Amino acid sequence: MKVLVISGSPRIDGNSDVLCDQFIKGAKDIGHETEKINLSKKKLSPCFACYACRNGGVCIQKDDMTEILEKLVSADIIVLSTPVYFYSMDAQMKMFIDRCLPRYREIKNKDFYFIITVADPQHEATDETMAGFRGYTRCLPEAKEKGIIYGTGAWEKGDILGLPVMQEAYEMGKSI
Q1: How far is the C-alpha of 77 from the C-alpha of 109, rounded, in Å?
Q2: 63 — alpha (psi -120 to 50), left (phi > 0) or beta?
Q3: What is the pTM of this model?
Q4: What are the boundaries of each domain within the chain?
Q5: Domain 2-174 in this protein, CATH class
Q6: What is the per-residue pLDDT across 74-125, written as a single tens digit (0 to 9) for each?
């Protein structure tokens, strides 16, 4: 199976990005094909809401989202990962979600996993972020939520290392 991991973290090797790597390691260990896209390394602009994409499913913007959309359509499993900023997903992830508009109907019959890191130690601190993810997947035909990895209590880069959630991410990757 093709596993596509979208890391919204603006920090390479930040807490949520490290959990992505653990998930990928688990998925690779059982033979899945994996790819990680770091949104912070991509050239993306916000959606202009011009709706030019309604005529043929092509965005007028010429940036990396065209390539990312193709990978989303061809993936079997999609992992979305974000740190929580002010009790919501970060800007990179939200911009990515909005830019799926041209081909969102083609991102169909996918299994979704979510990785969320947050400074707050309570899972409830991720409620708004999960609401955003669920709103996105509700718009995708036959999307199925398969699992959530909560990296709570992680503020500074590296706080996640050594926490039990590292093993949880690996095991969830192995379980797909």
Answers
A1: 9
A2: beta
A3: 0.97
A4: 2-174
A5: alpha beta
A6: 999 999 999 999 999 999 999 999 999 999 999 999 999 999 999 999 999 9
